[in-house]
Design goal:
38% of the residues lie in helices and 25% in strands. The chain is an alpha+beta fold and 167 residues long. The chain has one domain (7-157): GAF domain (Beta-Lactamase, 2-Layer Sandwich), CATH 3.30.450.40. A 6-stranded antiparallel β-sheet has the order 3-2-1-6-5-4, with helices on both faces. Helix 1 (7-18) packs antiparallel against helix 2, helix 1 (7-18) runs parallel beside helix 4 (134-157) and helix 2 runs antiparallel to helix 4. The termini are far apart. It binds methionine sulfoxide. Residues 44, 65-66, 69, 74-77, 97-98, 100, 104, 107, 123, 125 line the site of methionine sulfoxide.
Length: 167
């Protein structure tokens, strides 16, 4: 990891960066940038959000990616459909894997829940086979928990009167 001792430190930095910011896109963009800066050997990190019954591309770092993923399709759609983290050592062996960047060989996708509902997923790709370990999965679980909290606050903030949101 670059700039942080471990995922716990990274999660704390993410919380400090996004807490009290009621703007979803801004928080997701900063979260993607922070993970991109901190994680070694990755070639894509970003978000897909559930909209109109599918996963739609959100803020990310890396090469341009596919815009719409149907539930159950690819690694992202499988994580969303099953509500379960998908940690894939070799994406070429994953049935239905969607190749956005030909350099990707391993992938981890974490479903994110807000208010008891599936919000979308956090998706990270790596060119290194077997890049994501159980430790990464646990650490990214802490990152996902911060994101869920922050995204929940953004939803609530939308309903605040403008003078309470501030400028
Ligand atoms: N590989 C993903 C598609 C998204 S990209 O990796 C950014 C999948 O199979 O769902």
């Amino acid at each position: 990891m670059v700039g942080f001792a471990n995922y716990e430190e990274l999660s704390r930095a993410l919380l400090a960066l996004t807490r009290d910011v009621p703007y979803e896109t801004a928080n997701l963009a900063n979260a993607a940038a922070l993970l991109w800066q901190a994680m070694e050997d990755i070639n894509w990190v970003g978000f897909y959000k559930m909209e109109d019954g599918a996963l739609i591309l959100g803020p990310f770092q890396g090469k341009p990616a596919c815009v719409r993923i149907a539930p159950g399709k690819g690694v992202c759609g499988t994580a969303a459909w099953l509500g379960k983290v998908q940690r894939v050592a070799d994406v070429h062996a994953f049935p239905g894997h969607i190749a956005c960047d030909g350099a990707s060989n391993a992938e981890i996708v974490l479903p994110l829940y807000v208010g008891g509902r599936l919000w979308g997923v956090l998706d990270i790709d790596s060119p290194v086979f077997g890049r994501f370990t159980q430790e990464d999965e646990a650490g990214l679980g802490a990152v996902a928990a911060v994101l869920e909290r922050v995204l929940g606050d953004c939803v609530e903030a939308k309903h605040l009167p403008i003078d309470k949101v501030g400028k």
